[in-house]
Design brief:
133 residues, mainly alpha, two-stranded antiparallel sheet, 6 helices
């Protein structure tokens, strides 16, 4: 089985996810939560639908994810100052500080995870190439 690319990718992802889940738990986040916070923290005010598009998730999933993050005080939905008919999702002060700390944890987990590779940057570039980016 270890010759099959799909098998290798699946199990490498599972190990990375397990390490990140454990590291993010003290911040009250999981990987999906962190991905949503990252999209919201992108600098430009995004609507709920724009967050969903950026993450490539469906509308109902993003609604549930944002609801959970809002309940925990990490994000807020606000009226857009440019278009009062539009709501945007923004990080709260708690969301900003939690995101910053959790992002540092994520980066450290990734560095440790990729440490056995000779050239982690090249590995990332190769993965982007396969994704057509």
């Amino acid at each position: 089985m270890s010759e099959r690319l799909g098998y290798l990718l699946k199990h490498v992802l599972a190990q990375l996810t397990e390490a990140q889940t454990a590291a993010l738990a003290p911040h009250g986040l999981n990987g999906r939560d962190l991905a949503v916070l990252n999209a919201v923290a992108s600098g430009e005010p995004l609507s709920q639908l724009e967050v969903a598009a950026r993450l490539r998730v469906d509308r109902t999933s993003i609604g549930d994810l944002l609801d959970a993050l809002e309940e925990r005080g990490f994000v807020e939905r606000r009226r857009s100052p440019e278009d009062r008919r539009r709501n945007v999702v923004v990080l709260t002060a708690l969301g900003e500080s939690t995101f910053a700390a959790a992002e540092e944890v994520r980066l450290e987990v990734e560095r440790a995870f990729l440490a056995p590779l000779g050239d982690a940057a090249r590995f990332r570039d190769d993965l982007r190439l396969l994704l057509g980016e």
